[in-house]
Amino acid sequence: PLVSGSRSSKTFKPKKNIPEGSHQYELLKHAEATLGSGNLRQAVMLPEGEDLNEWIAVNTVDFFNQINMLYGTITEFCTEASCSVMSAGPRYEYHWADGTNIKKPIKCSAPKYIDYLMTWVQDQLDDETLFPSKIGVPFPKNFMSVAKTILKRLFRVYAHIYHQHFDSVMRLQEEAHLNTSFKHFIFFVQEFNLIDRRELAPLQELIEKLGSKDR
């Protein structure tokens, strides 16, 4: 028999842990506590006296872990055969380039694209010069632009799941989990203006719907 909860513990990539006892860990705990209050608009706001870069770093790691888990639940449905291109509906197709290993965008299947994407994000998160975990180590000058690129790319995984795999998500009874995670993500990127509106177009209707429920 399928043990309940065994599916959802399957992540696509290893989870990225924030070191316990660190200030970032305290921030993560703060974020989790305010999320529990149910008011997502408030939960994403920069806590008083905190450093914006650090707040964005902690949340970016958290979103990576959430998407990692959500995608992990549907990997068996996202195959070379079912998803031969990385798309978010018929009008949006993504080609992969990371600017270093792959400079010219390549057309690839969704599982391949998402593997490239999540590996790339993981490498950024593990880079201590970009995401310093030690107290007092400053964030680099280009931190904001790196964080924006990470979040822009993570959005594409949500977009692919919603457009191509929502039926599987519903069958697994994961849709509440997916919607809450995505809503948190959208409120966060809106609060700090981190993703260009054009990039959000594939899920525009959903974004408007989620936002209107909260006014």
From TrEMBL:
SMART domains for this protein: Mob1_phocein
Q: Which GO terms describe its molecular function?
A: kinase activity
Q: Which domain of life is it from?
A: Eukaryota
Keywords in alphabetical order, please: Kinase, Metal-binding, Transferase, Zinc
Q: Does the keyword Zinc apply?
A: yes
Q: Where does Zn(2+) bind?
A: C78, C83, H160, H165
Matching Gene3D superfamilies: MOB kinase activator
Among PANTHER family, the record links this protein to: MPS ONE BINDER KINASE ACTIVATOR-LIKE MOB
Q: What is this protein called?
A: MOB1A kinase
What species does this protein belong to? Smutsornis africanus
Specify the taxonomic lineage. Eukaryota, Metazoa, Chordata, Craniata, Vertebrata
